[in-house]
């Protein structure tokens, strides 16, 4: 599969596009979290990646992020690489906490080399990261024609370097102009071994997660059985989370985790 040429990828992807866009959405299988109806559901905190990725985030703020995640039982603390070791040590000190360290690599642009992202991921894992979120090289996807084989090899390099730690691939839906290209990005990520496809970095001007995009992504990757969908970017209320779960998401990336479990609305920008 890794030696497929662009024309072979094009045949596979175009076939998948026709299949997915011709399906009736009413026939979609519900996602495992579609039955969450209140923030009090014990599965809800474990679906949240509690996130602080601002460039001006301080060590003190990172400690607070960890303490909140421990208190509410979030799935992860998602941070930039400089803070992974700090996060892992603080989480490990909280005996019995389910929260893990998650690190973004090649973030937020995704325009670095595959080798540099792979090294960044391996360093994050050495520092204690148990999940990796990386960004697709979007320019190669928007190329005419898309550089299928190069994108696949790029993502596979990062996924392989991170294994067995799972990798989430951010496709930046707000900057992808058509459903066909969103499907293409998800297929390439899934075939490269991604554990999740993820909507957004939260940094792009094109916008964050929408239930329509999440549903399309869910319908695209479910053929792989093990690939899941993460919704991130602008998800700031329990009602929005509920929409994402109904659309197929199994993880939410947000800086508003505390307000979500308390069912408080948020108007903050970004994640």
Automatic annotation (TrEMBL):
GO terms for molecular function: deoxyribose-phosphate aldolase activity. It comes from the Eukaryota. One of its GO terms (biological process) is deoxyribose phosphate catabolic process. Its EC number is 4.1.2.4. It catalyses: 2-deoxy-D-ribose 5-phosphate = D-glyceraldehyde 3-phosphate + acetaldehyde. The keyword Oxidoreductase does not apply. One of its GO terms (cellular component) is cytoplasm. Belongs to the DeoC/FbaB aldolase family. DeoC type 1 subfamily. This is deoxyribose-phosphate aldolase. It comes from Galerina marginata (strain CBS 339.88).
């Amino acid at each position: 599969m890794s030696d497929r040429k662009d024309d072979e990828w094009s045949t596979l992807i175009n076939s998948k596009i026709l299949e997915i866009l011709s399906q009736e959405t009413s026939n979609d299988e519900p996602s495992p979290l579609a039955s969450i109806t209140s923030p009090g559901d014990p599965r809800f905190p474990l679906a949240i990646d509690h996130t602080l990725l601002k460039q001006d985030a301080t060590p003190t703020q990172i400690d607070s992020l960890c303490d909140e995640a421990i208190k509410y039982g979030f799935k992860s603390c998602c941070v930039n690489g400089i803070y992974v070791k700090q996060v892992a040590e603080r989480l490990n000190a909280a005996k019995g906490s389910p929260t893990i360290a998650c690190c973004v690599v090649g973030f937020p642009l995704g325009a670095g080399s595959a080798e540099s992202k792979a090294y960044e991921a391996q360093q994050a894992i050495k520092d204690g990261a148990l999940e990796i979120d990386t960004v697709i090289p979007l320019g190669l996807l928007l190329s005419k024609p898309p550089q299928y084989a190069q994108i696949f090899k790029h993502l596979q390099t990062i996924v392989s370097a991170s294994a067995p730690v799972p990798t989430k691939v951010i496709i930046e839906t707000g900057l992808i102009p058509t459903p066909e290209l969103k499907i293409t990005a998800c297929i390439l990520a899934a075939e490269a071994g991604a554990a999740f496809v993820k909507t957004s970095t939260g940094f792009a001007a094109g916008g964050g997660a929408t239930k329509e995009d999440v549903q399309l992504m869910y319908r695209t990757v479910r053929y792989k059985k093990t690939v899941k969908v993460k919704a991130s970017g602008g998800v700031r209320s329990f009602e929005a989370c509920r929409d994402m779960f109904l659309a197929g998401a199994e993880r939410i990336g947000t800086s508003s985790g505390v307000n979500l479990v308390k069912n408080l609305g948020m108007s903050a920008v970004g994640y």
